[in-house]
Amino acid sequence: MRKRTTIVPLLALLSLVLPAPATAQPTGTVVSGQARFQILSPTLVRTEYAGDRRFENASTYNVVNRTFPRTAYRSRVEDGWLIITTSAMTLRYRVGSGPFRADNLELKTAGTTASPWRRVVCATGQLCEAEDQHREGVLVAAEHPGHTGAGFVAGFSYTNNGITATVRATGAGKHRLVVKYANGRGGDGKHESRTLGLSVDGQAPRQITLPATADWREWKQVETEVDLSAGEHRVALTRGAADSGNVNVDSLALLTSGQPYPVDRAVDDCRFGTSCEAENGAIGGAAKIADEHVGFAGTGFVAELVGGTRLSQRVTGVPAAGTYAVHLRYANGTGGDGKHEPRTVLINGQAVTLPTTANWTTWATATAQIPLPAGTSDLTVTCPATGCHVNLDTIGINNATQHLPLGGYRRSLDGYTGNSGDPRLYPGLLHRDGWYLLDDTTSALLNGTPRVDRGAQPYQDGYVFGYGQDFKTALGDLAQLTGGPKLLPRWAYGVWYSEYIDRTAADYRDRILPAFRQNGVPLDVLVVDTDFKAHNTWNGWRMDQSKFPDPQGFLDWVHGEGLHSTLNIHPSIQGTDPDFAQAQATAKGKLAKGSCNDCYVFDWADPDQLRAYLELHRTMPTDFWWLDWCCDGSGSSLRGVTPDSWINEQYAKLGGFAFSRGFGSLQAGGYSGSGPLPTGPWAEKRTTLHFTGDTSSTWGALKATIGYTSAEAVSTGMSAISHDIGGHNDTTGLRGSETYLDNGQVRYTTKLPDDMYARWVQLGAFQPITRLHSNHGDRLPWQYGPAAQASATKFLNLRERLVPYIYTLAEQANRTGVPVVRPAYLEHPGSPEAYSTVDSQFMLGPDVLVAPITTPGDVGETRVWFPPGQWTDYFTGRTYQGNTWATVSAGWDTMPVFLRAGGMLVERSGNVTNDVKNPADKLTVHVTAGAKGEFTLYEDNGRKLSARTRITQSDGTVTVHPAKGWFPGKVSKRDWTVVVHNPDGSTRTVQALNKSAHQRVVINLR
């Protein structure tokens, strides 16, 4: 028995050390030792490394489905490399080389070579930047001076917030683990010693104390002793239940006795044939990492190099000694020395001239021929004594492409004015060079349970997308893998009215809705903002009986009018609230005080607190909830789950979908107004209508909306995106039409300039959601002058008529991942203009081009690029040839909207008050003469029954094919109207009336 028990562990140990040959399995899986590859589609491969060989098969909170159609692929081992090839990409892994990193895993797709995985291991004596490590519930910030690298990890303000670093002890024995931190006055108002938990290899944490520093600008070091064996270990700094957190951590280091705190930063390699981020290299001297100028690749750039600075990349995999092209992507604006002129940098001592760029947001590429030895060596960029005065973004080693994001997202646009450039976005799925790594390593399981801790054993779990320019396929893979964007109820795609102002049930019943009806303006969703609450208008939990004497009766009235309604919620409760005692009892006494005045907040990870929170909603009847949290501090301590996503999922269970911000949490040290959390946005789209926050009413904010909607959609897969149409915060001071009380004083609402209002409503009519909103500001057409009123009324009615079309696009998005509002490059990836116009125009589905006017005046104009094909102005009938530019002007009664030849735009044939009470039994199809095309209209009964009606155009006829599937009680017969747009700008109308939904209808256009 002893002999057997000795041999078995020895064999197990050898199996972990010795590489195993790659084996292909019939399930589309290839295993190579501790690495597993699952070929899910030609453009998507799961890459998983498990040091303990325990591969994970359960669904995670991000990845809910790995069941894809079988994919053809080839697998072989050649010269020590496992090579997996599909029709779209090739993946190479060096057999037996350990966890994935830059030098052992390579992707080739559509002419691009990349190293998807970056793994930073901090050896003894190396600086371990906190922002390079795995983060849980914390964000990277940079506003306090004195930090190194790109910034510091901020907050540790909630249980389970933390970072986990991989360190490598170069020898066995006792080591000093030193942490560089700042500890000023926290969000809880305290300035005192704080604690965090330190855990090594998943063992029980020990508590370390971080004494107070003078303020957030002072950085100190604290150290503790750890006894380590030689080799890799996982070191975690985490706020446990007994810790106070509320500190900022800049870096850490594993040191031997007497070893000074290091300057040299641990980095990963830059593989030959790839393009590497400058900010990921080893930086010396006064060089800094920055991100204030848009247009960069990765997470930032190395900023304005001066004399004595250097940037080094360790280049691996050089096939043979020789001279190779090195490509520097840089910006060269007016430098700190006041000069704007060509600059010189030294690459391995060789002088290279970098011509000027227009400014710091304009990036260019310079190429130099640099000798490199075979294998591994350092490539170093240095500056002459006079300084370089340039910003460096990427270094391509025999590779001229950059990993430039297409689109991007953020938690919100709160406070955005549009006066200081474009908002800072965070990269997501789509990139210009056609690849992405979705790192799912830290994601919890689907039910919210954290993954099993693996001790010192390394573990990686990521999905490599290699799509080239096939962006629609990438979005489809993402939807299949992580779930499609939520299909909202059809009425949600109509017109919403919302305003942050004190309203009563009588106001809505007797004044507001009658005004909508009297002025011929449609309405589908009535939003009741926060002032409806009793006890406290911010975070009370009962409807004020003086304003809403019969809450259920109010909702019944809403439904009787064909409307739906939502109530605004802020997630905290006052200690004096009449419902507090019961909530605290349900939570079993675990509700803790928040940073707001005498308020208590909820940890939604705790079942008792979540139950207490959800029970507070029961006395307030509504159709769905608007979680409008900005400053309360409730959150979730679940590891591996983004708190926004977790609570939004709970709201979706209550009301069908969540209406909220997304991708992050307010608990992240007060820094999360815009930033997302590293667990990513992948679960959010399954439940959430993303409310983008409180922007300002400026022309700049209006213009930014154009690009932001499609940018977020293509980076996350989110399709249901809702902006405050008209902006939230007033910037004009123009006196509005209503009065209200503010601390006993009578004040007037504000309003937009008429031209800004008209243009904003025009844009809103073609957004995924049309929601009029403001902070005590007029947003209703009859509150403006006659021309602006006529324009807004026209476009809000057009939006209502377009609901059948937009709902069809939303259902397509749910199935395919391709969003309702999209950039032109999804349809025309080979056209450079499709990328350069993302901030001025967008597509509504594949066939409608929208180019909003965002400048003041009675008549505005915009420069429009027309994609391949022929395009007809929806309003004027003028035609434009594809691959051309034109300056298009419009008054307030029209806007630049164009229909692609062969495309179809389906809308209601007449104006209606709302969608719910008006079956779509009269539909109009807009077509262009002489073109072929088709469109399939999707409809359902709000549950499981649905119908698809295919409409085709060919040879001078439009054919309505019999509906497939149907539901009773909606529409059994239809009047069809076809509007033909002729090349000369005229239109013809042809009708087919009273046709059965199951009847084939042929409409002759001649």
UniProtKB/TrEMBL annotation:
Residues covered by the CBM6 domain: 126-255, 274-398
CDD domains per UniProt: CBM35_Lmo2446-like
Superkingdom to which the source organism belongs: Bacteria
Pfam family, one: Glyco_hydro_31_2nd
Signal sequence, renumbered to the chain: 1-24
PROSITE patterns: CBM6
SUPFAM superfamilies noted in UniProt: (Trans)glycosidases, Galactose-binding domain-like, Glycosyl hydrolase domain
Family annotation (InterPro entries): CBM6, DUF5110, Galactose-bd-like_sf, GH, Glyco_hydro_31_C, Glyco_hydro_31_TIM, Glyco_hydro_b, Glycosyl_Hydrolase_31
Keywords, sorted A to Z: Glycosidase, Hydrolase, Signal
Similarity section: Belongs to the glycosyl hydrolase 31 family.
Name of the protein described by the UniProt record: Carbohydrate-binding protein
Source species of the chain: Lentzea indica
